[in-house]
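BUG: 3D viewer hangs when loading the predicted structure for this chain

Environment: internal workstation, default settings.
Expected: structure renders.
Actual: progress bar stalls at 90%.

Input used:
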Amino acid sequence: MSTTTPLITADLVAVDLAATERTDVTRRLIELLVAAGRVTDGDGFAADVAAREAQMATGMPGGIGLPHARSEHVVVPSLAVGKLAQGVDWGAPDGPARLVFLIAAPASGDADHLQILAALARRLVHESFRTSLLEAPDAATVAEIVTREVVPS
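Structure tokens produced before the viewer hung:
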């Protein structure tokens, strides 16, 4: 993974995201990635994410949505996070998601994508990690917590 570009920064975090369905949440997070220059074609990446979601719902227990895709439209491995004002159904068995993590990986980045996914999933099983993100007062704090807890040093 590139040491020059952090996986997540405050400008990739949306707090109090108001959306009622998965596609809307995903689109808003993709807009952050496009604005940051990490995704070259928002519509193209959205199609890749939708295709991946169609294979298997990416909702996890604990109110988590974990959409992800490898895509030719992704410039650098990135993670966008949305904190939802109200939960959105992400296909998890225990109810709607309030935290959504969109993993964007370059088409050539198999290992990066899986490493990020695995590290994030390991942390998300801990209620204390989820709570710290839900209670974080701002985008910078969310980015700092994820960087500290998930990104390999």
